[in-house]
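This section describes the prediction task in plain terms. A model, or a person checking by hand, is given the sequence of a single protein chain and must write out its three-dimensional structure as a string of C-alpha cells. No templates, partner chains or ligands are provided. The sample shown here is typical of the held-out split.
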Amino acid sequence: MDGPPAIALGVDPTRPGIMNKPPRGLTERLLDGPLLIRLAGFGTIMTLGTLGVLYYALQTSNALHATTLAFTTFVLFQMFNVFNARSGSSSVFTPYFFTNRKLWLALVGVLSLQVAAVHWPPAQTVFTTTALSLYDWLLAASVAAGILLIEEGRKLVFATLGRPLQRTTQRQ
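The expected answer:
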C-alpha cells in the first residue's frame, strides 16, 4: 500500500531554493531526535485512529465489516501520510502539491487496488473483506485525513511561533 507512493517520492521534483541550503554534515544523523518523535507520533495517530474505527465498527456491525473498515482506514492513513513525507517544515498545500504526476498515479493505483480488495468478489475472498458503504468510506477517509491535518497544524504552530520545524540542513 505504501510502496508505490514511496518510490514515487524518490522522483519528487526539487523545491525552489533547495540548493541554497548547506548539505547535511558527515556526522549528522539522517534520523535525528525531532524526526524520530514525529515518526512515532505518526505511528501513534495511525494506531489510535485504526483501532478507534475498529472498535466503533465492532459496536455497530459484524467482525468482517469492522476489520474491512479498519483495514481500509489504515490504507488511507498511509495515503494521506505520504504528503507528510514530502516536507517536514512547509505546508503541502502549495502549487507544488500537484507537481509529481508519478505520485498521483501511485495514489490512484493504491486506491484502486483497495477498492478492488473491498468490492470485487474474488478479491473479497482472498483478502477476507466485505463491501463498504459510502458512509464507511467517508468515515475511513475522514479519520485518516487527520494525520495530514494534525501535521499541517503542527507546522502552522511552529511557523507562527517562529521556531524552526526541523534542522535547517535537512531537505525540505
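For orientation: The helical segments are 3-9, 33-60, 63-84, 101-119, 121-127, 134-161.
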